[in-house]
Amino acid sequence: VVFTGLVLVGTLGYLLLLTVNQGRMAVATIDALEGRPTSGASLRAATPGLMGRSAGLIGVGVVAYLVVGLVAGAVVTLFALVLGTMGRNNSDALAAVAVLAGLLLYLGVIVAALVIGVKLIYPLPFLGVEGRGPVAAIKASWSLTTGRFWRTLGYLLVAMLLLYLANVVGS
């Protein structure tokens, strides 16, 4: 139990530092593009309260993860109950329909995760550069990708392919 607690605290601490660093990297990128010198001190001065906003964003993510987990658990439990009932009736047709429904549900979850992942790709720059709070950064990311979903997905796929190729060439 103690080990699990330490792993959880370490993971949350890592996520917090990673989030803060990514928010500051967005600020550093804009500074570099505009020709301003950047240092650790200037980044800390340019992003007051980023640690708290980052913690808030992680908190929102944890709550969303728990809610989705509870809903998914309820759906799986309901699905298992339906399958158990059908097993008693010993109907192959109903079992086939249940398996098909399960596959469609699984595919739906994958598509929903992809859409949400693309729509929520930009909260960290909004946290760092604009100083928005966690919920405002999520809303801004969602609205920024509205009407630009496929383009954003394409950019992500190209970036992932380039990183993959760099990894293959480098190894």
Summarize the structure in words.
- By secondary structure, the chain is mainly alpha-helical.
- The chain has seven helices and no strands.
- The protein has helices at 2-33, 40-46, 50-89, 92-119, 123-128, 134-145, 149-170.
- Helix 3 packs antiparallel against helix 4 (92-119).
- The longest helix is centred in the middle third of the chain and has 40 residues, at 50-89.
- The chain is elongated.
Top keywords for this entry?
171 residues; mainly alpha; 86% helix; 0% strand; elongated
* Oligomerization category of the chains in this entry: single chain
Overall strand count: 0
Summing up helix and strand content along with how strands pair, one would put the structural category as mainly alpha
- Uncertain residue ranges: none
Mean pLDDT: 89
Short description:
The protein contains seven helices and no strands. By secondary structure, it is an all-alpha fold.
Chart the SSEs and their pairings.
Blueprint: H1 2-33, H2 40-46, H3 50-89, H4 92-119, H5 123-128, H6 134-145, H7 149-170
